[in-house]
Amino acid sequence: MNLGFFTMPIHSLEKDWRLSLKEDREAFLLAEELGFTEAYVGEHITDRAENITSCVAFLAWIAAATRRIKLGTGTVNMPNAHPATVAASIAMLDHMLDGRLIFGISPGGLLSDAEVFGNLHADRNAMFLEAINQVLEIWASDPPYNIEGKYWKISTKQSLMRDIGQGFIARPLQRPHPPIVVTAVAPFSKGVAEAAARGWDPISANFLMPAWVKSHWPKYVEGCARGGRTADAANWRVAKSVFVAKDAATAKAYATDPKSPYVYYYHSLFTKLKANGRVELFKTRRDQPDDEVTLESICDKLIIWGTPESVADQLLAFQDEIGRFGTLLYAGKDWKDRELGRQSMILMAEKVLPLVNAGTSRKSNAAE
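RESULT FIELD:
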């Protein structure tokens, strides 16, 4: 199992924005130092708590400070930007990263973002598909493009001047395009199958119950079969909320106290998703009554915390429950306590991951 990092950081509304940005950047640089293989950051325009407004700008900020780690957009919310803007900015970022970019995409899930961009009541899934198809067509085409869709039209026919380079939209360094990943945020996600059929890979969200995470694998297998490729568990990424401390008491307090950044994170998500009619994401079975879903039950099921040995055991049990996957994405949270936040990542990389991989190897050998 590889170790990656994924953050859609939910910060305190009172926290100085400069400090939260600095700490988020520091987490990425620490991930690079610790040998994390990849790291993703989300974006929202209209959220004071989830306050990274551009994943492209954020990754560009840290591009020159990293050398090895792959960096991913987590995600570009495709209906909220013109496809030509996305194509050009992603292409430039891929060059800035010398081909280390992973292109994470989604229709976007924050309703206030959808409202401000005028697509609250639109078919955002249809907009998403048109947008990514147009981005890929731009990268595969020469100007003047002449790409027409329901939502966007792209052409430089009237203004093209080939001899001086006017009218060209940039292409990424990785050809035909950077690896594409999609976030899977629903049980039995049809989107996972559709993405896999196109050669894209899934990230299972850290706010889904294990039963729903498990449901993504058969969908991935289905899509890979349609696309004529072999489904490889190494390409499945699973995000998980984990906190590791040197002693159990510290781990429990930081992960589960009412003012914990982990509880704060799930309180925010629960409030938003419940208001959006998506409380089923937090259910342990599809017929579970809504009133049985509480913040306490969510935190109890979705937060793994403890000493390195305890966390390794819990992650191995989680892997047994959902099946083998290639990369565990450590889900970033606000560094309410900077030293504990850093220490958790260090212990995860240096203590927990080796224990998990040793345990997986023992199970594989025993099965043989």
